[in-house]
Every structure is written in structure tokens, then in C-alpha cells.
Amino acid sequence: MPTPRFAVFAAFVANGVFFSSWAARVPALAERIGAHEGVLGLTLLGASAGLALTAPLAARVVAAHGARVVVIASVVVIALVLPLLGLATSPLQLGLVLFLVGSSNAALDVSMNVGAVEVLRVLDRPLMPQFHAGFSVGGLLGSLGAAGAAAASWTPLRHFLLVAVLGLLLLALVGRNLPGATGERHREAVTDQAPVLRRPLLWLLAAVAFCSAIAEGASADWSALFLVGERGTDQAAAAAAYAGFSVAMATARLLGEPVQRRWGPHRLLAGGALVAFFGLVLVVAVPLAAAGYAGFALTGLGLAFAFPVVMDLAGAAGRRADGTGGERELGLVTTIAYTGFLAGPPLVGGIAHATNLSVALGVVAVVVAATLPAVWFAARASAGERERERIDA
Q1: Could you confirm whether domain 4-392 is CATH 1.20.1250.20?
Q2: What is the SS3 assignment for 286?
């Protein structure tokens, strides 16, 4: 019987498969609706808007009803909505369906992270990078599946139907073993807790997640189109760029527990930001397809710890004396992170339309570098909170 740890890991895998399956088929979807970079960027805004608007609501629902029911419901909705992407024939239709996909993805993201925090507290181990490795493994599987579907000339509809069925089968296998079966014990505590908006630490962590989300979203949404339009590869080969990104990210995250123990969360965040910055510089500065693949892989390696470490720190910041809590903190950080996904598509698409994708991804590299001061201030704020807690105790 699957353990709660395995069940949460499987939820992360499913999320990665869902996301990368449609992200890697963006060139085919753009061709179907006849959209250039600028229009496509606005269309992709639909998914980001769904993510950002749904995350706060999802955090409240998880606090009230537990993580398990939200994970199950969101996987079912994604499986029902995903094939509709293959039926869209206009930018408006595609944007509306992407909004639904993004909304259900936000609910899954928040609930699976809350479930992961519950497992971490029971086992008392820094396993969040390993859980997020599940998302990267799913991203790899989904992108390779997308590359295979493109090479076999499968339509997006046929491809997405298969992905939906596989997602539902995985849910049937692990659904009963997901943690967070009830949320009643959280209701009063969540209502009475001090507002999270007044804590500078959470805003700084959210800033790191925000900048990282822009870079991760740019790699997912634009890597294939960049290699097709700027480096002259075909669609099947271009789809493999996100696979390299996902392999590097998954490998780093699977090794994340000992690395985080040795380096500490804040140094890990800063070092990763530097690696991602140089990866994106390699992508845009060297006009070779091979450099593009290598650069996106380095970007995946550098961004590997951003989300899991930030989520780990946010969950720890929200832990209450009884060992529960963290839902609202995760909801706040996730919401702001998703505004990075919200800002990313029109930012990259608009700059690419005015110049080219190389310039647009160069701007993303600068955004990644901006996480360094945020990490530094977050480390100071965290130390300050610990000192205040020590004095109060």
C-alpha cells in the first residue's frame, strides 16, 4: 500500500506531467490558432491568471477541509479540462481553457505542498526538494511524451486525452493514502492567527519565488519556441529542451536533502540563482542550438531549489505550537509566485514581439539575478524572527 510520502510524491509527478505536456506543445497550439509571439504571450496569460487568482482560495479550502480532498478534486478537474486545449481554434478560446487549467493547477499546487509539509513534520526531515523533484520527473515524462507525440504527428487533442487518462489512473492508485484527510482542527486557528501580510519574511520569500517563477515559466513556455524560431530546430527536437531543463532540475532536487543540510536554505537559494543566471546568459549569448540545450539545463539546475526551499521556509514560518499551520503562509507565497507566472508570458512575449526572444530571455536573466538581494534580506529577517522567539520564550 502506498505510504503518505509516496502519495504526495505521486501528486507532484502528476502535476509536472500535466503542466509540461501542454507547455511543450505550445508551438503546435500556437500554429493551430495562428498566433505570433505577442498574441501568444497574452493567451498564455490565461493559465497564469488562473494560477494567481485561485491560490489564495485554495489555501483557505485546504485549511478548512484538508489537503487530500483538494488534491483529488483538482486532479480530476485538470484531467477533464486538459483535452479542451486541443479543441481551441482561437486565442480567446485557448486563453479561457488555459485559465481553467491554471486554476485547477493552483489548487493542486497548494494542496500538495501542504500535504508535503505534513509529511515533513511527521518525518522531521528536509524532504521538500525531493517532493519537488517529483514535479521535475513529471516535467521530464510529460515533455518526452510531448516530443514523442509531436514526432508521431499526434494532434494535441489525442495527446492530452492520453495524459488525462494516465493522471486519473495514478490518482486512483494513491488517492486514499494522501495526508490531510481532515481540516476541521485548523478552522479556529486559521481565523484567529495574526495576518501573514504583516510579516516581512514572507514577502521576501515570495519575492524569491516570484522572480524564480518568471524564469521557470519562461523556460517552460518559450524554450521550445526559442529553439524553433531562433536556432532553427524542428518541433520534436525543440520539445526536448524542456526535457533537459527537467532532468537537471529533478537530479538536483533528488539530491536536495544532504545538500540543504550542508549548505543551509539561504546559501542554496543564492547559489542556485547564480547558476540559473549564467544558464540563461548562455542560451541567449551563444547562437548555437547546443548552447541553448545546455543553457536551459543549467537554468533548471539553478532554479531547482527555489520553490521547494521557499515553500519549506514558508511552512516553517507558519508552524504553530501544536505542530499544525502553514496553510496561509504557503497560500501567500504561492499566490505571489504565481504572479510571476502571470507576468512572465506577456513580459517575454511583448519584448520578443518588439525585438526577439533572445533579448526577452536576457531580460529574464536579469530578473533571476534580482533574487540575490531578496535572499540576503530574507536570511536577516529569519534570524530576527528566531531571536524574537528566543527572547519571548
Answers
A1: yes
A2: coil
